[in-house]
Amino acid sequence: MARFEKVPDIVIGRLPVYLRALTRLASEGQEITSSQQLGKMLGVSSAQIRKDLSYFGEFGKQGMGYNIAHLQEQLSAILKVDREWEVVVVGAGPLAEALIREDPFAGKGFRIVALFDSRPERIGQRLAGMEILDSAQLPEVVRQRGLKVAILAVPAAEAQQVADTLVAAGIKAILSYASTTLSVPPEVRLQYNDAAAQLQRMAYYLQ
Amino acid sequence: MARFEKVPDIVIGRLPVYLRALTRLASEGQEITSSQQLGKMLGVSSAQIRKDLSYFGEFGKQGMGYNIAHLQEQLSAILKVDREWEVVVVGAGPLAEALIREDPFAGKGFRIVALFDSRPERIGQRLAGMEILDSAQLPEVVRQRGLKVAILAVPAAEAQQVADTLVAAGIKAILSYASTTLSVPPEVRLQYNDAAAQLQRMAYYLQ
Q1: CATH number attached to the domain at B85-197
Q2: Which terminus of chain A has a smaller tally of CB atoms within 10 A, N or C?
Q3: C-alpha span between A175 and A181 (Å, rounded)
Q4: B180 vs A24: CB contact, 8 Å cut-off?
Q5: What whole-number distance in Å separates Cα of residue B70 and Cα of residue A66?
Q6: What distance in Å separates residue A66's CA from the closest CA in chain B?
């Protein structure tokens, strides 16, 4: 993978967006697309799309466009989501329930395999069919199963402590729904799923 | 507000992130911060933070740092979240339930005031205490209440049609949880809350 080493993270961040657009086109029965069409769908320039993809080789013949199925496969392989990563969720609340029930990760490279909570009255209960395990067992389960990916769905006040535990156990990627800023070591990836921040960003433009 | 007109959207997108970091510092009892401390928390340079804030005037005295409460107030005003925007949610599923129950928007400028679904068996029911209204009434309610902000929580296959309805009714900002790419007119803001895409972005770095 050495040849990908210098790809800017901002480019990596756009690949899932391209994948999402390709999924829509495929669902509508389309087989071939172009950087122009993708750019128009996404509100970016076709040049940006071509340049982003060029980091990873050739995906289409000049003037022929992209084969959608092939590009989906290639992007999935680049992002390493052509396999299924096992995901641990910490915090057995309404959000965890929604994620388990709606399973937005199906077919996208991730599967929730374990659910933890620290509240004694929740431990041993089931949430959307999944057993709620005791957070005290978290490090052991993460290590034994070799889990790398975690979703943090605990209250903001507990989030840093849980993040520290996850990192110590070997988690390398955290998606946090807690509405606070977290600190993790540089080798651990962190993304915030912060709906309030997304609405705030748009509110600026409202009259 | 004319003096803000030329602020790049990427800068606007970072203001809620700064606000989130300030909230953490305030919750820990801190009263003054610096661009250095914020930069370290957020993994960005202090120069970027100073430059971003400089679009909007002076927030601190040279060498004195920022008063956290004051900066929070100013950023909230700039983002127009020093008021409460009424939000409509379309799609009365588990995710809508989580948003209503957990209320991640409390104190952040938004309040869910109406919930719609098109499935006859859902209409008239309650979800987390909120009545599920008939989607057929959506345009009328949006217009009558002058709603500007919507959350889309319907299946991907229905998302574009619902987005079109929202836009036609006067919605100016859409946060979509549907896992598909949407098309809206340029005067309407659109953000995707796509947990799968966020995990995919991090998977690239996993070994």
Answers
A1: 3.40.50.720
A2: C
A3: 12
A4: yes
A5: 51
A6: 18
